[in-house]
Amino acid sequence: MWIWIVAAVIVILALAGYLIMKLYPSLGGESSGASRSAIERSPNRAEGKFENQIPTSMGMSAGSAAKLLVEFMKGNPHGRPRQPLSVVPFSADGFRADEEDKATVTWYGHSAALLRIDGLTLFLDPMLGRAPSPFPMFGGKRYSQEPPVDIDSLPDIDAVILSHDHYDHLDYGSILKLKSKVRRFFVPLGVGAHLIRWGVDPSAISEHDWWEEIDFEGLKLATAPARHFSGRSIGDRNSTLWCSWIIRGRQANIYFSGDSGYGPHFKEIGEKYGPFDLTLIECGQYDERWAAIHMMPEETVQAHVDVRGKAMIPIHWGAFTLAMHAWTDPVERATRAALSRNVNIVTPRIGETVRIGDSTYSSAEWWK
Length: 368
What we know:
Counteracts the endogenous Pycsar antiviral defense system. Phosphodiesterase that enables metal-dependent hydrolysis of host cyclic nucleotide Pycsar defense signals such as cCMP and cUMP. By secondary structure, this protein is α/β, with parallel strands linked by helices.
């Protein structure tokens, strides 16, 4: 009798899991047609999966995994701000200020950044949701009580640029609210399937492999390698590509790292596309145990030097707790490393607009 009960429970759970994976839209879609063919032709795949340029282990022993689980359950008393973070309100006038002269960028915490360049508006990894999870009611909540910007207040967006499909970069709810404002989506190979499932017109989506260059209304966009991985559901790890981006216009040349461990690709990018007026490079959610896929803050500064950047905004912090370090450690360590190497580090408040190429940048230690 008990055997039959256990078997029935297993079958019910398996069926429920299958239905969630097939019917729950936040998990994303699967590539087909021309997208599938482009994926299969990519030179950056092996044994049916995308791979990094250099060996990148994400494995962890059972003992290390158990220890990590205990650490996460205990938490870090300094892992989140004591009070919700305040956000600088969006100003359309400030965002477009002096657009004939200089490009502007507005950072919205984590890796989300709104860019105004050569009269065009671009949104990089626009994760504006409450939690980086397929089920937003669970998981670590954003540090601010409200979204960092009201999507309805934003101007029309010429293009959204995505680095990869992880939940803290590609958010279902944000895309649903943004899609009617966006003319084009530029994404790594395979990521378009998620957008299509969420109602984005396939003709508005452009998928790209590493080192592809795109002309977009006077801008020169290019995809470049990152050292990371991808996946939104069970069994789909590395089925889509991850990348960094180069955005070159008349007003500025910008590098956006996406997520990446440190590696030789940064020097390669600097030699091919540098120097950059501004870099946005990840510096948070790190741990020695997964340093191959998320840089330590000192490596962030080295990556900026490698790509030949003039000024750097450290990103991938200030919104969510996805690692065990204190929430301010990323920016404090990156700032110390930058000062020791005479690197111009820019630390705007969340929602503050920065003019790219100014002689002086915002460097207030607002997190204190």
